Amino acid sequence: MRERAIDLALLHTPPEVNDMFKQEKILTEPVILAMPKERMLLAPGPDDLNGQPWIVDQENRNPPARARLLAACQKGGFRPNICLEVSGPLAALACVEAGLGFIFIQKSLARIVPDNVALVSLPWLPLEITLFAVWRKEETRPLTKRFLATLGLY
To answer: What is the 3-state secondary structure (H, E, C) of 12-44?
Structure first.
């Protein structure tokens, strides 16, 4: 964006606030627990999740997201036993389908979950996915302005 190669970005982790860019939260979505049906927990609490094998996104893909995940788990009263790191939610779902562990996914992915994967909401867990729009403060391109207006940001 600094080099004007792109005009707008949709990010889970926005850049540090600075004089060059504007950013606005455009979506917040709850996170749900996905687990293999053969290891399904009906109403899991923190103690039930301790010791379970966890699949997470590779830390180098988004360190702030990993930090938010671990902080939410700690606040929720458990520590995930990370056994496998993958690249993205679809790879993680495939691992759950294979019975390799538990994951957190955004609720909108529930519609693509395989039949042998169980889902459960954890109202006690303070974790959600947030999406931010980021653009240059002095945006002049008409198409970018129109897109921002569609999002209600311009």
So the answer is: CCCCCCCCCEEEEEEEEEEEEEEEEHHHCCCCC
Q: What is the maximum alpha-carbon separation in the chain?
A: 55
User: Which domains are present in the chain?
Assistant: 8-150 (3.40.190.290)
Contact 88, 57 (CB under 8 A): yes
What is the DSSP code (8-state) at residue 125?
S
pTM recorded for the entire structure: 0.82
Phi, psi of 44 (to 5 degrees): -65, 140
**Per-residue burial over 74-109, b = 16 or more CB atoms within 10 Å of its CB, e = otherwise:** eebebebeeeebbeebeebbebbbeebbbbbbbeeb
Contact yes or no for 88/58 (Cβ under 8 A): no
Catalogue the E-assigned strands of 12-127: 21-36, 53-57, 81-86, 103-106, 117-121
Write out pLDDT tens, residues 32-63: 999 999 999 989 999 999 989 999 999 888 88
